């Protein structure tokens, strides 16, 4: 999507190589009151040299030296393509070699003219109003993401991010549940709750304490339905003569996923092979999930996490996504939000830090082709030596015209569709076995709509779940979002045809971003006419309307908000300003069999790749976290190949399985060995019945 306007900060450290000036953009891509603060430091790693690195190549061949008998060390030149989390994380890992002396030359190319951040980026318009390509959350298990943020000078995580925030889930039938903050910052390694044990008999009828006692003895995700605060109309009441939308039997049917959940091992290639070719719809069918549970709970989550319907989502991707975002630990679904633009609060200081280490940024630069450098022509490197580079990149730089860069290594840090397009035009990529089917990679189209609204004369207060507890949205809407500033909405909301397969999220930014909060207006004397309530609506899988004009998309967003929250539609006359940002096929689409197309982080020596779609069978992570993890893995491989001894690229391991899950996995391995299912395993009780009756799965 669009990127953030980046302040052009010149580094005081100058490179001896001259580069054309430009500005960047990458066609890459991919939730005070009831919030829980998180410690800034969780899984900090020592900045240590890369294990197994080799020494740098010496300049012993006279053809690579100037008229000097003294050999000089060749400084490798690395080009990183992509200005999002993956690209910056690669540069971060490698640039630690440049302190105190320069050991590697790093050039980061970003197709965006605005600045860094990839999908997370944005910009300010001529009125200094900020716009972003969607709001992006930081989940509790983003261990490597938090680790790299802690390494950025000038970034205080607790000042940049909110506390952990609850979210409210909506289906096409209305509000379903409030997902509370489940994790605890204390005794994290125990992976357990600190709870008040009910005191009998006085607490015998205290439903909340009883539920927490039961949940504390269950492994994730079984604790989530117990602790989630389901809406009364969805679970206990009958409305308009219709039965409750979710019955106890519906919730219990979720246990049918235990077989597949225990059988699928996130970091096992064989598990991915068994599950990736099958659609998630088959997974839920074999698990015996009731249609009501699927419609009310499972489907909405599919449309906002992997961002696709069950039939078009790999069963492996579904299990992996749910594992990372909800199942792998208590509180895995807990999420923090940036208190402003991610580009300004994270990527601006990050870029400054990288520039101080000698990283060169070229903005507004697109790569047309990557090829092997067949020329014997020598050129000056930053070390004042003459040398021959192995790779050549043909660039398109807009008004600056076309140019080339020669280098020793390239790291692709772009989205799957962008990588596929580049591979098709690049002999150096298309000749590699692992890129043969890159053209089959698909992307999800997203649309972000930001609405600046006239403030309502009544300020709603004492709202829960955000950084701030006040909003100037219409009171009816403020009340509908009183439990959280984040509404997570499944597909089919309001029977709007364009939303049949489109999920979306609604954000009240007055309760999330510092610059929009009501008290900021008051404390800084902002005139009433200059105050605004701010809503954001982010749509996922928005192919059916991405090509509409802005006004029509704004109208659709107003209808979607009204339908989801069951409130009066906002009048267009109350809109002061709006902005629609589009990202066509920009987010990774994890369709059935897509993992077979995902390469490892090293394509060959000198060619590496990172992103949330890369190395699916590796580290158990998704989205931003997967981008950072694969960036560190790619940097590690590059460092070994080129003898960079001081790269900071150690990966923080994902959360270990809980004892309960470990026990279930052992049982699943035994059952698979005794009677391996031909496709996906059925629910545990169906499998047990088959085993006892001697039946084999059809």
TrEMBL record:
Transmembrane segments: none
SUPFAM superfamilies recorded: FAD/NAD(P)-binding domain
Protein name (database record): Amine oxidase domain-containing protein
Top-level taxonomic group: Eukaryota
InterPro entries listed in its UniProt record: FAD/NAD-bd_sf (IPR036188), Zeta_carotene_desat/Oxidored (IPR050464)
One protein family per Pfam: NAD_binding_8
């Amino acid at each position: 999507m669009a990127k953030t306007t980046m302040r052009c900060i010149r580094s005081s450290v100058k490179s001896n190589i001259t580069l054309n000036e430009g500005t960047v953009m990458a066609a890459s891509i991919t939730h005070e009151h009831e919030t829980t603060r998180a410690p800034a430091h969780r899984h900090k790693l020592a900045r240590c040299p890369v294990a197994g690195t080799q020494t740098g190549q010496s300049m012993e061949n006279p053809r690579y030296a100037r008229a000097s008998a003294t050999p000089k060390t060749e400084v490798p030149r690395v080009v990183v393509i992509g200005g999002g989390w993956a690209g910056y994380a690669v540069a971060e890992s490698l640039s630690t070699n440049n302190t105190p002396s320069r050991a590697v030359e790093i050039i980061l190319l970003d197709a965006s003219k605005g600045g860094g951040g990839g999908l997370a980026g944005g910009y300010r318009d001529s009125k200094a109003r900020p716009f972003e390509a969607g709001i992006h959350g930081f989940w509790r298990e983003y261990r490597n993401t938090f680790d790299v943020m802690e390494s950025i000078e000038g970034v205080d995580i607790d000042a940049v991010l909110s506390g952990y925030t609850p979210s409210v889930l909506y289906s096409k039938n209305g509000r379903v549940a409030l997902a509370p903050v489940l994790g605890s910052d204390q005794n994290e390694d125990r992976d357990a709750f600190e709870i008040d044990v009910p005191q009998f008999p006085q607490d015998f009828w205290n439903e909340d304490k009883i539920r927490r006692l039961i949940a504390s003895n269950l492994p994730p995700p079984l604790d989530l339905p117990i602790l989630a605060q389901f809406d009364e109309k969805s679970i206990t009441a009958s409305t308009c003569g219709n039965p409750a939308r979710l019955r106890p039997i519906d919730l219990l049917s979720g246990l049918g996923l235990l077989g597949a959940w225990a059988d699928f091992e996130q970091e096992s290639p064989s598990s991915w092979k068994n599950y990736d070719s099958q659609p998630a719809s088959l997974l839920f069918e074999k698990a015996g999930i009731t249609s009501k549970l699927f419609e009310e709970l499972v489907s909405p989550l599919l449309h906002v996490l992997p961002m696709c319907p069950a039939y078009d989502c790999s069963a492996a991707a579904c299990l992996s996504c749910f594992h990372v975002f909800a199942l792998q630990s208590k509180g895995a679904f807990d999420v923090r939000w940036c208190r402003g633009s991610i580009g300004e609060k994270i990527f601006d200081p990050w870029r400054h830090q990288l520039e101080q280490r000698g990283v060169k940024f070229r903005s507004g630069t697109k790569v047309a082709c990557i090829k092997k450098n067949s020329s014997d022509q020598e050129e000056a490197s930053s070390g004042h030596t003459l040398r021959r580079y192995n790779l050549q990149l043909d660039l398109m730089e807009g008004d600056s015209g076309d140019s080339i860069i020669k280098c020793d290594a390239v790291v692709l840090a772009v989205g799957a569709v962008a990588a596929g397009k580049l591979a098709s035009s690049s002999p150096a990529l298309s000749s590699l076995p692992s890129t043969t089917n890159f053209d089959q990679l698909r992307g999800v189209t997203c649309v972000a709509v930001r609405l600046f609204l006239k403030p309502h004369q009544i300020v709603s207060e004492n709202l829960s779940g955000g950084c701030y507890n006040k909003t100037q949205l219409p009171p009816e809407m403020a009340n509908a979002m009183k439990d959280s500033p984040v509404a997570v909405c499944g597909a089919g909301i309001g029977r709007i045809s364009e939303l049949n397969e489109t999920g979306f999220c609604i954000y009240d930014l007055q309760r999330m971003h510092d610059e929009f909060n009501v008290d900021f207006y008051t404390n800084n004397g902002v005139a009433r006419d200059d105050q605004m309530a701010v809503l954001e609506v982010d749509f996922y899988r928005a192919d059916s309307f991405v090509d509409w004009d802005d006004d029509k998309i704004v109208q659709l967003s107003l209808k979607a908000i009204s339908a989801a929250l069951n409130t009066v539609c906002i009048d267009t006359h109350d809109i002061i300003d709006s902005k629609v940002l589009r990202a066509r096929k920009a987010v990774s689409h994890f369709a059935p069999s897509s993992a077979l197309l995902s390469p490892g982080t090293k394509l060959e020596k000198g060619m590496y790749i990172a992103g949330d779609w890369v190395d699916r069978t590796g580290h158990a992570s998704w989205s931003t976290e997967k981008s950072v993890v694969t960036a560190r893995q790619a940097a590690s491989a590059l460092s070994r190949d080129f003898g960079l001894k001081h790269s900071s690229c150690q990966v923080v391991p994902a959360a270990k399985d809980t004892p309960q899950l470990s026990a279930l996995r052992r049982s699943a391995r035994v059952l698979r060995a005794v009677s391996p299912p031909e496709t996906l395993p059925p629910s545990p009780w169906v499998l047990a019945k088959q085993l006892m009756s001697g039946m084999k799965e059809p």
